[in-house]
Amino acid sequence: MRRFLADTLFRLLLWGAAIIALFPVIWVVLTSIKPPELSQALPPVWDFAPTLQSYRDVLGGNTYTSQAFGTLLMHSLIVTVASTLLGLALGVPAAYALARFRFRGKRGTANWILSTIMFPPAVSVVPVFIFASKLGLTDTFPVLVVPYAAFNLPMVIWMLRSFIKQIPHEIEEAAMVDGASQGAVLRYIVLPLLMPGIVAASLLSAMLAWNEFLFALTLTRSAAKTAPVGISEFTNMYGTQWGSLTAAATVTVAPILLATLVLRRRLVEGLTFGAVK
Amino acid sequence: MTFDGTFDDKGLSRRALLRGGAALAGGAAFTGLTGAPAMAADAAKPDRLTMLYATSEADSDAIKAALPAFKQAFGFDIALDTMPYNALQQKAFAELASESPYYDIMIVDTPWMPALTNKILPITDMILDPRANEGLDITDFIPKVFYDTAVYRRDNSALHFKDDAAIDPAKIKAEGFDIYGLPVQSNVLTMAYRKDLFEDAALKAAYRTKFGSDLAPPATWDEFAQVAEFMTDSAKRRWGTTLMAGTGDWATDDFKTLLAGFGGDGHLVSDTFEPVFDSPEGVKALTYYAKLIAKKVVPPGTTSASWDTAATSFGSGLTAMSMNYHSETLNPTVKGEIAYAMVPKGVARGPHFGTWMLSVNSYSKNKDWAFRAIKWFTSRETQTKALASQLHPTRLSVYAAAAADPGIVAKFGNFYDVLGQSLQVGVGRPRLTNYADIDRTVWVAVNDAARGAATPEAALKGAAAEVATLLQQAGYKRS
Amino acid sequence: MTVVRTGLRARPAAARTRSTPSRRALKAWGFMLPAGALLLAMTVVPTLYLAYCAFRHEDLLGPNSRWVGLENFRHVLGDPNIWADALTTLQFVALAVAVEMALGLGLALMLSRKLAETDLLTALFILPLGVTPVVSALVFRVLLDPAYGWVDYYLQSWGLIDQPIDWFGEPFYAWTAVIGLDVWQWTPFVALILLAGLQGVPSEPKEAARLDGANALQLFWHIILPFMAPFLAIALVFRAIEAFKTFGSVFVLTGGGPGTSTSLINLDLYRIALQNFDIGAAAALGICFLVVLSLIMGRLLAVLNRNTDILED
To answer: Signal sequence span per UniProt (chain C) (predicted)?
Structure first.
């Protein structure tokens, strides 16, 4: 009984906090299904006939912007998935080396990796644009995938390094004694145990890539233009097209919610070190 | 000469283009021999032209709507990319800095141009060439708008071409200036007011009793303050006017409008690179502005308002008047009617203005066709058709057409009439490559004074000293 | 507990090496190489180019490029506005990150407790991180608008305030809004890292401590926190670096105002680099920013290293 009471209280607290934290998102979704002329009405209108018109307009390209939003979402998806995978592919081995090997210059290397993301992007975007343009890469997917992977790499490496260090080394040793190579150990022993870390790191990488604005804006024109750049077109000196903007924002944030829901179990369940010890 | 006649017979009709295309090979050889600049009809026709445009600040709707007609006239497409304002400048500068030929046509806003005179193609020679300028009718552009927007000296981009007379490309060239594009969308500060409130019998009577004169849209800044105060009734959630005193370009623009109105130089910085806004006129103007806000004849949040929140406030029926850069619409839930007037007058009148132009990228591979295209997009015919989607015309004849079109008058009231008059007296910006710094310094001073964090005198004095340093750092030497 | 820690950490070198140290080092560098190459190409090369630009007047739009020595540095460091904005940035980072760390830890702990709907709640709590920053800033701005925003409206109609709060017209409220937005958007970032980190806390010492009669606080302080330490450090370091780079949200929300009260250094960088297009001055300021940030982060890492094994070999 006491347990039940505690659980209920805890539940109330959590849901209360969730509703407050989500209020801006709720407002966005609400506004997206409101008739546009009511979006700024005061007192706020709660009783209205919901409409999907804004979604139809935004996804079908019936707005004043130059492209249908569905296309931009597809671009975002390609760039996000590719850059996240690239970041992981490069980050896991590097994290493993930094966690498991002793070598000269290790600490310096780890610090250097961290320092690569410290330069303010408003400045570094200029040379990147010029180089990309000279290489004829402007407005292609790689021109976003590669920088995004590079931005997220330090976080992936540092996070996974800490995870690997928490995996008892004895497991790997046992495998190596059995004759497994370092690569095989990484692939078959470390990687599965690393799942929660990998899930967390890829979720974070994906969200940052999904929402990146400045590079996407500067390095693309239309063939690789991403959703955040498209969304920003709905606001201007005349005012904001709240219907279009909130509909676009809702369809942009929905995949994130979905991905988190799907991955949540792996994020937390993955492993318990108690069990493997 | 009738413009339409010229257009059909010799201009850009499909027939003419086909003829031009047929003469292509011979024409090219001819050009080579005479050494004249390559002309439109001679250059190979591209598959398409690419254009970088502003999403809504310059009404991409109007351009989008014109695309089918363009295709019909030229036989090829325009690939149109639009960007929101802040993004657009980055995009345009980055494209030009990397010498990319991708965009043939770019839209250029006045504050950017001083930095771009080496990157945007001067089109003076094309305009002077009788074979290229057919149908251009350059004297139809509003002179003040044209000089402020498109005429620059390549070797000294800070200089204004000082002339109010009819546009004469030969004279421009003779004085060492060049034409860098054709104006496409003119923005100028105008005043919108709620006609229904100004005609409300009870309000009229009350005004008469109180002031002994008729309630009317204010013509002077004194009247403006009086009417704004009269209209304010915060219990009814109604205020006199919006102002845009938040930190941003809009606050600088509000101030420079008042500065010009109170008799100062609305350019803020003189042609000899002295800050001139901390003059007695400047102090008077900013004091007036701060007083309006202190008296609360403006809605709450005015010291953080920008042009979009001002439009929302007026559109939601919160104010009786509003000054902004476009026609306004009332939310359907607000029952009312809008009319427009020029911004009030002090000892002078100088509403802030700034015009977008269509320009040719100097790295474009299709310069001649790009010139033809911008000529077409800024032509009287295209602009007249674009009136309905709120493109602000740059040609005198289009304003005449707007006044004569009952459909336009029904939709926009007297907006175009007021816009056209205001453009004739508008005051532009100083031409500085670091205008963003100057702009920020001035808006901080305006915002500080507006919320009472500094006196107008102190704010302007501090800002003027800062601006002097900034100008010096950017290499602008006082002469 | 000591046993477990020893089990995790004590790795006699002899037992774990099959190959010689130099061959192992070579292998390590082999693992590092692809990542290192990408970082070199994507971040170091542009930084070197900018270091070159910092000593030049780099006229990307005209013919006037030339060497100017230290003039760019004199120019940006001689500007009192830059110093004021640097200080504002420091305050912003300290405040925002402190709040985010505290709330993020709380959130992670709450979400690590199993309920039927924990999965859903985790996804919901992480959601703000997924909202495009431009959108969150615009939404905060419209909700907080004193004339037609919902926040002032409901605060008034519930009788909590008499007059609408001018959120962006007074420095105190503008700061509240700016910090509030950052906390709202980025607390889930901290929580997500910590939530993953919590999975690394072994269950045996927890149970042992419980059997010994430790209460929740003691359990947290002596068992959970030490194991979480590296993840707290990572969340802190990465969040702090990102907070130093905050630009878009403040640009949209306050534009640096009122006056210059929320003007972060990145607003200056944006203006110099992408509006004035003065890449020389921007690079000079960017390099100063990099140096200061590296010093701060170096110091922070050193402090963290005393309490965690974040850098330990």
So the answer is: none
Contact A239 B312 (CB under 8 A): yes
Q: Looking at residues B392-416, what average pLDDT do you find? A: 94
The answer to the question of residue A15 being in a domain is no
Residue C192's alpha-carbon distances to A205, B92, C104, C127, in angstroms, are 12, 39, 8, 11
Residue A216 lies in a domain: yes
Identify the CATH number of the domain in which residue A146 sits.
1.10.3720.10
- How many domains are contained in chain A? 1
**Contacting B residues, span 291-310, partner chain A, CB-CB under 8 Å:** 306-308
Provide the mean pLDDT of chain B: 89
Residue A159: count other Cβ atoms within 10 Å of its Cβ.
26
C-alpha distance from residue A182 to each of A97, A173, C16 (Å): 10, 10, 11
Number of domains in chain C: 1
CATH number, position C290:
1.10.3720.10
pLDDT of B192 above 50:
yes
- Predicted-complex ipTM score: 0.90
Helix, strand, coil shares, percent, chain A, to 5? 75, 0, 25
Is the backbone of residue B161 left (phi > 0), alpha (psi -120 to 50) or beta?
A: beta
Q: Is A266 within the bounds of a domain? A: yes
Domain extent at residue A229: 70-276
Q: Which residues of C touch A94 (CB under 8 A)?
A: 31-32, 34-36
Please list every residue in chain C whose beta carbon sits closer than 8 Å to the beta carbon of residue B89. 274-275
- CA dist list (Å): C247 to A134, B452, C213, C271: 28, 27, 49, 11
Query: Does residue A241 belong to any structural domain of this protein?
Result: yes
Return the higher-pLDDT residue of C93 and A163.
C93
Query: Regarding beta strands B77-83 and B48-54, do their DSSP bridges make them parallel or antiparallel, or are they unpaired?
Result: parallel
The predicted pLDDT at position B477 comes to 81
Q: Does residue B371 fall inside a structural domain?
A: yes
Give chain C's length: 313
Specify the higher pLDDT residue, B263 or C18: B263
Chains in contact with A via at least 3 Cβ–Cβ pairs below 8 Å: B, C
- Structural contact between residues B329 and C175, judged by C-beta atoms closer than 8 angstroms: no
> Does residue C176 belong to any structural domain of this protein?
yes
Q: pTM of the full predicted structure? A: 0.90
* pLDDT tens digits along C66-125: 999 999 999 999 999 999 999 999 999 999 999 999 999 999 999 888 788 888 898 999
Q: What is the pLDDT of residues A137-161, one digit of tens each?
A: 999 999 999 999 999 999 999 999 9
- H/E segment holding residue C182: helix C171-198
Range of the domain at C101: 72-307
How do residues B26-58 score in pLDDT, each as one tens digit?
333 333 333 334 444 567 899 999 999 998 787
| Same structural domain, B344 and B255 | yes
Of B79, B102, B332, the CB nearest to A37: B332
The residue whose two tokens read 């009783």 is: A47
Residue B269 and residue B438 in contact, taking contact as beta carbons nearer than 8 Å:
yes
pLDDT digit string, tens, across residues C257-300: 899 999 999 999 999 999 999 999 999 999 999 999 999 999 99
The residue range of the domain holding B174 is 3-186+354-424
List the single best residue of C19, C60, C82, C127 to mutate versus A (max A Cβ within 10 A): C127
> How many domains are contained in chain B?
2
- Distance of alpha carbon B303 from alpha carbon B297, whole angstroms: 12
Per-residue pLDDT, averaged over A226-255, amounts to 91
Backbone angles phi, psi at B77, to 5 degrees: -95, 160
